[in-house]
Structure formats: C-alpha cells, structure tokens
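A quick word before the example. In earlier lectures we treated sequence and structure as two separate objects. From today on, think of them as two lines of the same record. Here is R-spondin-3 written that way.
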Amino acid sequence: VHPNVSQGCQGGCATCSDYNGCLSCKPRLFFVLERIGMKQIGVCLSSCPSGYYGTRYPDINKCAKCKADCDTCFTRNFCTKCKSGFYLYSGKCLEKCPDGLEANNHTMECTSIVHCETSEWSPWSPCTKKGKTCGFKRGNEVRVREIVQHPSARGNPCPATSESRKCVVQRKRCQKEGKGKKNREEKRKKSNKDESKETRQESKGRAARRQNREQRENNNKTQPKKRKAPNKDQSVAPVDTAH
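And the structure line, produced from the sequence above:
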C-alpha cells in the first residue's frame, strides 16, 4: 500500500488519502468526485447527488454527471428532470416543445394539447317573461350544457354554455297570488261542512227512529188486552129460572 493511502478511513471509504479523500468505497456505495475550489475530493455516498446518475461495475460503483441541461437523469441520455428554462419530453430537455404539444410551466414538461369538451344540451325550459309563465304571448326559453373537460393553454376554448330563443305561448291570465289557494281552502271547508251536516242529519234520523220504536214498545206494555167479541152466529141458551 502506498504510504499516502490509508485503510482506516471514515465516511464509507474503503481506502483514502489525506490529499484526495476517498479512493475507493465500501460495497454498494457510489464513488463521486466533489470539487472544492481548485481541488477534487473523492466521497462515497449511498445514492448519487442531483445532476449525477449511478453506474455499477464489478470493481467500483461510480456517479457520472448528467448532461448540462438535466437536473436529474437516469442515464446520460435519459433525463428525468430539466433545469430551469427547459421542458422535459421523452427523456430529453428541450427549449421548445414539438408541434402538437404544449409547454406546461407547472411541471416543466411537454404535454398533449387538451381541447374543451361539453355535455349535451338540456331540454328547452318553459317559455317565460320576467320570471312568469303567464300573462304574455311572446317570451324566451333557454337551454344549458356543462363543461366536462376544461382546455389546456393551447386547446380550443369552451363554447357558450347557455342559449336563449324567442317563444310564443297561448295567452292566458295569471291567477292572482293566493287566490287559487283561497278557493281550494273554501271548497275544502264547504265540503267538510256538508259532510258534517249530513252526519248530523243521519244521527238525528237514527235517534228519532230509536225513540219511536221505544215509544211503541212502552205503549204495548201499558194497554190491556182486548177480549174477543162473541160470534153473531152463536145462540145464547135461555136460563131456566122456574122450579
């Protein structure tokens, strides 16, 4: 072993030197050079830092630097996050997105253009005028639809979600507010009154019939029974008084 090489290192180093830091790493750790001023120091890490990607070899695991426009990468040719001012698309960092795609400033990626989508129109509403459905001949009716997919920045904008058109209805007078309810209430009261009257009349009739029946029964109990008159054809025998 070289006199400047030590095997009693710390921080995951297998071998190290006072001047260059880590020279080799313990198993499963990645070796990476860090610049400190004009000097590079070797360090051993469990994972590669931002801007680097890891490669494993039989003798050593190394952290290699990503391309200049990559913030993080999987390999040198496949970026997973771009630096500011670039948009990620298929592992590459681009200043401008290809045709048919748009730049998403939130994710900093090139994404597909999304157009607006709406639901089907609803049925036309009743013909109204100033909020009323009576007392006029010409009014308006409307229909609506909902937005089911909002567009992206370069997508087709959403169309109108409501439509209105003129309409004609059969002219009719508006029923005064509360009048219909009042009439229904009066009819209900009258019906209840008639039913109560009929019920009272039926009760009086039953009471009168019961009273007449009781009166006849009492009369039959108090009057004496009438004797039967003799038959006119029967002859009464003379009484013999002579002795």
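Notice the following. The mean pLDDT is 81. We will return to this example when we discuss secondary structure assignment.
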